[in-house]
Design goal:
Blueprint (H helix, E strand, L loop, with lengths): L1 E5 L5 E5 L5 H9 L6 E6 L2 E5 L12 H11 L10 E6 L5 E2 L3 H23 L5 H17 L3
Antiparallel strand pairs: 1-2, 1-5, 3-4, 4-5, 5-6
Helix pairs in contact: 2-3, 2-4, 3-4
Length: 146
Amino acid sequence: MQALRIASDTTVTELTLPDLDARRAIREHLGSTGAADQAVYHRRALLHIHGSGQSIGLQQNLAAWALASAWRGMTLYPLHGPVVITGRTHDGGVAPLDDDLAQHARAVAQTVRETLIEWQARHPATNEAAIAELLAYAFRDVTTDR
């Protein structure tokens, strides 16, 4: 089953999960010994997030946050640690990730990576300006065919 992993450093890795025990494999890719939390930010996708989130000191995942915010059409709470993205069945089960959604994830991660590099030379005026800039780029990436 095809899936993607977005690391906190914006690295996107393609995954092939076993059909029979995908949830165990997802937990391993998240580094979680307990259950992984599932979140629906797009009707055809599930984001699998480390069950302990920021309570165990995981680094903020700007790429996953920007993607989830763009998919929902609003600024969301921060996401922390690696995130695995799978497709979603009509009854909420895990399915292979559709190619267009995988492309959204890759595009947003690349944009976040490039923006963070650019900000080393040109700092945003405020945190609010930084958030607005990242989200504008992410919204563009999920609404534009690339």
